[in-house]
Amino acid sequence: MIKEYKNTAVKPEPKGFPWKQVVGLFLSLALTFLALWVALGLSLPVPITLTVIVGLAIIQALIQLFMFMHFTEGTDPSHQMMGIAFGLFVAFAMVAGTLWIMAFML
Question: For 7, which DSSP code?
Answer without folding.
Answer: T
